[in-house]
Amino acid sequence: FVTDFDPDLVVTFSPDHYNGFFYRAMPPFCIGTAAEGVGDYGTYRGPLDVPADLATDCVRAVLDADVDVAISAAMDVDHGTVQPL
Q1: pTM value?
Q2: What is the total count of domains within the chain?
Q3: Contact of 33 with 70, CB cutoff 8 Å
Q4: Are the C-beta atoms of 78 and 57 separated by less than 8 Å?
Q5: pLDDT single digits (tens) 15-69
Q6: Is the dihedral of CA 15, 50, 56, 2 positive or negative?
Q7: What values do phi and psi take at 68, rounded to 5?
Q8: Which helix H or strand E contains 79, and what residues bound it?
Q9: Which structural domain, as residue segments, surrounds residue 7?
Q10: How many Cβ atoms from other residues are within 10 Å of residue 82's Cβ?
Q11: Residues in contact with 32: Cβ distance below 8 Å, sequence separation at least 6, in sequence order
């Protein structure tokens, strides 16, 4: 679906559905510098192509804007993230 538009970069905002984060550590916002699809509901399972340097730059910019954001170097994402891809 997204590949039909041949984008240079895709930024996805999505819910977690408790597949990667849990009550012990559930940040309201998190930027992943590396991510892997969990493959639920027949969606993609495996590593996603996340440009880590660009994601880290986004983290810095968001923190500089006084938004409290978490960062993950091993984010597990479900259908909410990978389905549009």
Answers
A1: 0.82
A2: 1
A3: no
A4: no
A5: 887 777 777 788 889 999 999 999 999 999 999 999 999 999 999 999 999 999 9
A6: negative
A7: -80, 100
A8: helix 79-82
A9: 2-82
A10: 22
A11: 50, 55, 71, 72, 73, 75, 77
Of all helices (H) and strands (E), which one includes residue 47? Answer: strand 45-48
d(CA 34, CA 51): 8
Per DSSP, what are the bridge partners of residue 29? Answer: none
- The answer to whether 70 touches 31, Cβ cutoff 8 Å, is yes
- Which residue carries 């993609």 as its tokens? 44
The confidence band for 83, taking pLDDT boundaries of 50, 70 and 90, is confident
Q: Locate 62 and state its tokens.
A: 């968001």
